[in-house]
Amino acid sequence: MIRTPLRPLARILAARAHGTDPDVIEAENLRQRNDVRRDDLRRRAEGRLFVLVLCFVAAFTTVGVRMAALASSDPQEPRLAAAGEAIVATRADITDRNGRLLATNLDTHSLYAQPRHLVDPSRAARELATVFPDLDAAALERRFTDGRKFLWIKKKLSPEQMQAVHDIGEPGLLFGPREMRLYPNGRLAAHVLGGASFGREGVHSAEVIGTAGIEKAFDAYLRDPGLGGAPLVTSLDLRVQAATRTVLAGGMELLNAKGASAVLMDVQTGEILSLVSLPDFDPNDRPRPLARGDQSDSPLFNRALQGVYELGSVFKIFTAAQALELGLANENTVLDTSGPMRISGFPIREFRNKDFGAISVGEIIVVSSNRGTARLALQIGAARQKAFLGKFGFLVPTELEVVEAPTGRPLYPERWQELSTVTISYGHGISTSPVHLAAGYASLVNGGTRVRPTLLRQPGPQQGERLISEATSDAVRRMLRAVVTDGTASFAEVPGYAVGGKTGTADKPRPAGGGYYDDKVISTFASFFPADAPRYVLVVTFDEPQETSGTEPRRTAGWTAVPVASEITRRIAPLLGLRPHVEAAPWPALTPAASRVAE
Amino acid sequence: MRGFVLIPSILAVLGLAFWAYQENYRTQAAQQRAETLARDIGALRERLALMEAEWAYLNRPLRLAELAELNFDRLKLQPFAPTQFGKLEEIAYPPDPTELIVDGIVEARGTLTDGVDPAGDWP
User: I need a surface site. Which of A32, A229, A343, A377 has the fewest CB within 10 A?
Assistant: First the structure.
């Protein structure tokens, strides 16, 4: 570029000659040069801005076009993600602790009709009525011809039924895929599983929702697609559940009982290995709740969890344990249990008006003395008794993971007076469920720490707060073991397994209020085994049992719940892997070789 | 001079375009295969679930108990009982196999060392 000099000699000289200021010329030239430079810089900056604008326009156009494309196109699964960990859209399975299926899904079909595509509605209705005997041909034909465009006929079809409908050959009868919930074990564990039904239904699919039990409590979890097909593992053991149910059902029949329940619980982990309530139902075909009458008579009613009963003498051990824990007595402290005894004008009697005289605390438990526990309870007092039972969870519903758990709310007197203290000490005036009782016994015998019942498999023992000392727990175990060896539960002995436990026979209260029935009882046996190092607690309860092998009907737990619990223990202990402690026959005496030579 | 740069560049662009074209089709083929496989896996999963459900149904404890009862004459199956636990000491150890061999030789030849030089070289 040819630079213009700032002070061109010719003009300077001319200016000097004219006597004007030559600096003006220089300033003028400098201004011109700066103008040129300014224009140049501006052009360059404008160019850069333009490029930048182009970039932004391109970027925003790309984003906009992509958004419009996403918004207007049909949703599509990512094509390559399918190969990885699949998102499983089906409801998760439920298994027992060993992975055996308790609930799974089965693909089936639903049947619907589009009446305007039907060739011959009356023939279709007739044929359908022969395939499905529960359908009425006339009603179906009326619905086919009343102008509607769409009609559900069946929610679930078996493959045979589907083929039969195919064979009708009507283009207006159509099938939609359906996923149904299947409980392969039928009635086993029905109360725990609950049941499932269809929620919102479409032609191509229907959502399966839990209607009761663990299915409803874990509904959101089971439907979570992110599980990747992992099942919900419960604490139940299918084999134990089957054995328990078989024995309990047999016992219920022999004893002419109205209902029965059994709860088996691990004393360390709180896992419920078996929970049976009879009568039960088939969750594949869940019956409707009773339209009238007492819901507790329905097979849907979970007696082990929802049924709160006055369980009777099984509570005596809690009174004894508290007296030991407070240092008011020890196992060998002798108390006078002779009558008469009146609390607030109410006579406290023994079973069949017996009189046991002066006996020790241990013997009070063994012979199940009402007056003995009453005396202990009077020493303990109402406030401390209520607090103690509260710590064992007897005053609130259990937190079991089924939707019915909150309905098993214990009943106890609002004003816990002296008479309540006395009656509650032997299990009257407080109503709890068998699951409560099992959890209470587990906390008593496991060394004295609180365990909460759970239906999910646990990785290890619960670290609950301490309720009673180890020494008290040991004493409780000895006293309960003595009930079986010397007391009211002599039928509970199972060869090889040392069983400890306590019987309870409580008269049933009349529903309308006003006293108790003379001939209807709730008999309970709460037991644990092995007695020296307890692993499991088993609570067996019968509703209105009656043992009729003798001359007069026997209803006490020792004759009803105890033999059944004993048979359950005999059946399930080997299944639980417990080795029986058998007194081994002595080995033939060995004769030292030297002595034989000497002979 | 300019041609020396331009011609190889054009050739390179042509080559790359050809390669990209091929890669594109190979990717599409692989994707289709992956989709087919995913569909197959899904179908197999469904079949597996069905079979597991059937297995669970056929092996439900109440049915097995019924079958055991029906076939009691042949199988004599009974519920697991505490008496079936054994002790290690109660199991008879199998006889020592070397002893069997030795017994066989003794039976055949009368004595083990007969005709064998005990001090002879071992192989």
Answer: A32
Please tell me the least confidently modeled range out of A19-28, A85-94, A139-148, A426-435. Answer: A85-94
Interchain pair A185, B87: CB under 8 A: no
Is residue A258 a contact partner of residue A270, using CB atoms and an 8 Å limit?
no
| Widest Cα–Cα separation across chain B | 107
**Tokens matching residue A30:** 């400098």
Whether A585 contacts chain B with CB within 8 A: no
The two structure tokens encoding residue A77? 């699964």
Please judge whether A104 and B49 are an interchain contact, meaning their C-beta atoms are less than 8 angstroms apart.
yes
Give pLDDT tens digits for A498-542: 999 999 998 888 877 778 888 889 999 999 989 889 999 999 999
Cβ-Cβ contacts under 8 Å for A247 (sequence gap 6 or more): A564, A567, A568, A571
Give the C-alpha separation, A329 to A442, whole Å: 22
Q: Which of A464, A377, A353, A366 is nearest to A429 (CA)?
A: A377
Closest CA to A523 of A318, A314, A373: A314
B31 with A574: Cβ contact below 8 A? no
DSSP A381: -
Shortest CA gap B56–chain A (Å) = 6
Task: Check if the beta carbon of residue A62 is closer than 8 Å to that of residue A200.
Answer: no
Handedness of CA A412, A418, A423, A425 (dihedral sign): positive
| Distance separating alpha carbons of residues A88 and A91, to the nearest angstrom | 8
pLDDT number for residue A151:
85
Complex ipTM: 0.72
| C-beta separation of A272 from A454 below 8 A | yes
Is residue A550 classed as helix, strand or coil in its secondary structure? coil
DSSP code per residue over A328-339? S--TT-EEE--S
Distance CA A445, CA B91 (A): 36
CB A126 within 8 Å of CB A137: yes
Q: Which residues contact A544 (CB under 8 A, 6 or more apart)?
A: A256, A257, A258, A259, A508, A520, A521, A522
Q: Alpha-carbon distance A299 to A252, whole Å? A: 14
Confidence of residue A314 (pLDDT cuts 50, 70, 90): very high
What is residue A596's predicted lDDT score, i.e. its pLDDT? 44
* β-pair type (A94-95, A232-233): parallel
User: Residue A529 forms beta bridges with which residues?
Assistant: A536
Is residue A210 helix, strand or coil?
A: strand
